[in-house]
Amino acid sequence: MTKQNKHRQPKGLPNKEQILEFIQTSDTPAGKREIAKAFGLKGQEKIALKKRLKDMAEEGLIDGKRTAYHRMGGVPKVTVLKIVAIEDGEPVAEPENWSPDTKEKPPRLMVKESKKMAALKRGDRILARNEETERGWRATPIKKLPARTEGLMGVVEKDGSGNYWLAPVDKRVRDSAPIGDVGEAAVGELVLAERMGKSARSKVKVVEVIGDPLAPKAFSLIAIAKHGIPHVFPQETIAEAERAVDLPLSSDHREDLRDVPIVAIDPADARDHDDAIWAEPDGKGGYRAIIAIADVSYYVRPGGALDREARKRGNSVYFPDRVVPMLPEVLSADVCSLKEDVDRAAMACHIRIDAEGRISDWRFTRAIVRLARNIAYEDAQAAIDAGEAPEYLQNLWGAWKLLFKARQARDPLDLELPERQVRLNDEGVIEEIAIRERLDAHRVVEDFMIAANVAAAKALEAKAAPVVYRIHETPSREKLMAFKEYLASQGRKFALGQVITPGLFNRMLKDVSDPAEKALIMEAVLRSQTQAYYGPANAGHFGLSLGSYAHFTSPIRRYADLLVHRALVDAYKLEQPKPKIDLPDGTGLSDRDRDALHQITDAISQTERRAMEAERDTIDRYVAAWLSGRVGETFDTRITGVQGFGFFATIDKLGGDGLVPVSTLGREYFTYDEKAQKLVGEKTGTEYATGDRLKLKLAEANALTGALKFEVPDSDGKGIEPRGNRPAPKKRTHQKKGAGAPRQTHDQGKRGRPGNIRHQGRRK
């Protein structure tokens, strides 16, 4: 028995499963030394263990930083938690690294306090062992961890006493850290730092100077550093990419499609072009179509340096000012990218679309293509609208109308989710922030891609081959219960006994005529949905109303698609001749891919969430920078969320969520009604509820953190436009002062129990 693990370990080099079990059941973080000691390894066995651990990190089994690999979508067995509240005297925690979409809340765990670790308070960090019980998630603390300045990135500041401080650039971190070694950094510069000791109050040391935090392109650098996104390719990866460029490309072992007028329709500023499409009438009321996808698996081979780096990155990350690509630019922006008038390697998906828009047949080939055009969405749409489109575009629109017909019959989830677009000039300065226009041209490409993705999944299933599915599960009963309770607070009904389908939500939204109320219900529907992920076990795609779905169409920017290509190569015998240059053999799935598909898909689901959060953070910073010169102005806003400490609102047609602290709402006490998602004034009955529209004054706009703060110009409740028809407010009972939980201010950062905690407004 060891300190790290209570179970006796077999002697000798452990296999991957034994290593994972040891890490997950260890009382302390288990690294190479602890594993070697537990299994009694010596000499060459230690060297073999080091290589095995490296392989496991590359496969996504472990993170390579002495912590256990864990599956996304739930709470890891052992992970770092942060205390977020004290409820009924018991600490409540959330996973520190939870990163789902913006509308899904992290799971909350009740923490079992022990004599050894009592008096936990809000903001404390702990390493805990977690389990799911009938009453919900429970956490047992293993050890208390020092406080952390998120990413240890911030701006150097100097106080009146000459002391240096690191002001954080993460809006979730409030406290600055003392700097013990400022190095060559100057006041006002953005820097990376590291702790000089283990204590939460230890000073930090500046290790890298990034420069002006408000300079063009600084916002994406902040996100890259904060989220730990790999952005520098190792030399061996670049060298392999340069060798791959020399791979021969001919029609000897490929279908020759160079005479087919295939076109790529993309954003005007796109640098990588994964996909291109073509269609023509079949004479039977339907269409024959080809979806040509970059043949990345020909260049990025299993087990090579390119493959290891692509797997580690998981996907490309897109910022307003730059792209952090999954593959080196010589491949992503050049050799793999489908461009007009040059020969390119492609994986071709041939489909037949019948008169009802159904996909009646499909086949996959490796091809050589030469695109007729690379055309922007706006240009393609303009040509169609003007009636001047060439035949190849007219055919694409004709085929799409059939696909759209089948889509309507399928009735997938139809949510209008506006996307913010940041436009920069050549110097990186913001020119405009607007909602991206949604054109039919976007829908044309989207529906062709969905058709190809379905065909890929079904083609692999037909061969009983491994499939990396894109999975979106039916909403859980817990989320549906919360959805039902929320609708009830708005005077609407939702029956849980019925079969839950996307169409059910669509019909509900169509019945809402008031635009403000519709936006409110739409957000509630979105909150009820599960997070999509990748996995080898099919559970369908609820949102698209599809039984089988796999990502096939973007292998330049998504590792999941590359795995699907490799599986198709094996299943349909599409292997290419062995190259004479120094590259790994084979372009199909390796044995390691097959054996670790579950772990790989979990890892790339995690990198996808990381990219989403980094992209969202960066957009928030650009919006705050755009608004920083308009502090004091009044904007039309809509309330997007309500908590006991205040409410969040977003500016119409611009976005950018900002907080209105309850302490700024005047001298009246406000009660938080969690089910109805509203704050209610005790004396006047003034309500601030999710979905309300009102004018708010911008009080702060912090470009470094992306945080906004609003104020109500007139706190007597006038000027609030309620969303839809509200049920009559119910009378509520309140605890007497001193009889229960105390009144608390927003600055105290406390959250009370729903319905009976009163929050103090501005003091007299």
Automatic annotation (TrEMBL):
Provenance organism: Qipengyuania citrea
Name of protein: Ribonuclease R
Enzyme Commission (EC) number: 3.1.13.1
Residue span(s) of domain S1 motif: 632-713
Entry superkingdom: Bacteria
EC main group: hydrolase
SMART domains: RNB (SM00955), S1 (SM00316)
Keyword Cell membrane: no
Annotated Basic residues bias: 728-737
